[in-house]
């Protein structure tokens, strides 16, 4: 008998399942991916257990609650973000450009490594409890402060506000990877994002208009109850998050006498969210054809699309934020249709960009389009509604820098 050979089990013997040594890490990774894909509120402990092929009881032996898994991943992402911009001791003797480059490379590398969960920090962290939310917010504030200082060392002529706007832009440009699944080799992706970040940092921005233009007033005739309901629902989704808004809340906000009055116009809360998404998607898609017809070439057409997108986003900030943040809550039967419209918009923009920059592949152009579109909502998410901090002329200039890839790095001072 060969002593190295394992004897066959006796007939009818019970198989022994051994618990993986890294079970906690495996649970954390799977739950984080589920939260990122579906949103915190749409995932249950039972869902996570099913994905792992274990019982809920076994899952609770490792983690006391869904929230513990959720908060643990966001706290980890916050720590990773701070670590990405932290320089080694030897960096004290490096030139300013090399120090900044090290931090940008770190942000890109960590985001690519955590791509499946990167979107959590942007859209779901508002569901953290008070202390955890303050801790995560402090992590990202620290990272932004560190990056702003590094940008200031490379471009000493920038004001503190200009440095902060560029620092947020760098994080936004890179973290857009969490919002889409465009496939690109990691090395090519890192180079592409690196170039976009340097272009954003090096962009010279125009003097903002003084005072900033007032937001467009939207008056809804009292007879258009369906429109009023949609506006009030979007406002509540923006303020509280979709899962924390009830049909009753929407009825009260719209001045309706009862919850049942909402159902005269919409089938429910999900129908209102779907209507908001369709409106945002339709507005982005409807302008592409006429803009192409009225433009002399792809550069002009893309610049006009950027202008119109920024104007619409500033006039309807709540709608744009909900469009980015709440996609996981769109009713399942409508999500596929909306994805088709979303992909069409990105594809059309990317096709124009490849004509402006023939060296880009369609996939690379799509990554840059996603990054540029995300800038608008990230600035509003970080800085709020104060256009004195991130005026629309600046946002247009930074979107164009990400898309067009200018100026060259060598043109920057420092």
Automatic annotation (TrEMBL):
Residues 44-63 bind DNA. Residues 1-10 have a biased composition (Pro residues). Keywords: DNA-binding, Transcription, Transcription regulation. Residues 1-20 are annotated as: Disordered. InterPro entries: Homeodomain-like_sf, HTH-type_TetR-like_transc_reg, HTH_TetR, Tet_transcr_reg_TetR-rel_C_sf. Residues 21-81, 223-284 form the HTH tetR-type domain. This is TetR/AcrR family transcriptional regulator.
